Give the backbone structure.
Amino acid sequence: IKPWSIDEVIDWFKDEPLQFEPGEDWSYSNSGYVLAAKVIEVVSGQDYDDFLRQEIFEKLDMEDTGQDVFTTVLPHRATGYGNAEREIYNAPYRDMPFTSGAGSLYSTVLDLYKWDRTLYTDTLVSTELLDRMMTPVKKDYAYGWFIRDELGHKLVEHGGAINGFLSQSQRFVDDDLVVISLFNYESTFWRTVNKGLAAMALGEEYEPTLLTTSVDVESDLLATYAGTYEVMEDYFVTLAVKDGHLVVTATDDPKPSLGLAQSETKFFFPDINLMMNVDVDEEGQVTGLRMLQGAHRASGSPVQDTDGESTP
């Protein structure tokens, strides 16, 4: 597969219509970060990867960080894995420089820790600029960071996902704590692992990532969840009860998958790497589903019968 340059990637999307006028709204965009990489090249007069290596990685002694190029022989490079059709598989090839500025780097936890420590100094970025970087501009998003409260502590974070790999960096800046996790498997638990580690370090209560023993849930309650839910046009998931357990099927996977109850409304389906929350209102009526499978989130709404009643 022919590698793409930054200019070729920009040519690919530059004529697409705007979703909204700049400054009026916010939506995460990998394309925006590719443009940022191009700005770096224009201002510095260097290739993006050369600039990062000389101005950041070498200065911070980040010896195990750089632009991930498939043809480079990189000792100890991790292999990425995914999960589909009930099987774990080698993640498909991806030309990483295609995502320059938006996720084309390889690194290690120790190197990312060096990066985090530097952000408490003015070695690379002044305190004034760093404060601007970490001040939300639209909603909870600043310049490359999500800013929110977690466990009663100020959190500055960002994650990443690409074929076979997931990453999460959470900086609790008032506590001088950083939690970094790198996965070479598209695990559904990448975010909850980070949250649990942070809670332990902060001395806060937390829920286990996954219960080893399924919670007992009354069959009558499970029966209220049974029905069909629309996730997107022409794609549905169906819940049913079998032998006292919730099972799920989908438009593209009619084979039932057994759910392990984590609570009365939360279920993990190990066969398909799916975590599902059933949302109910104050009267106990099902209002929808929230699903997480690897790095992918989705929601489902109860399908309405011809009489206006939902199927569950």
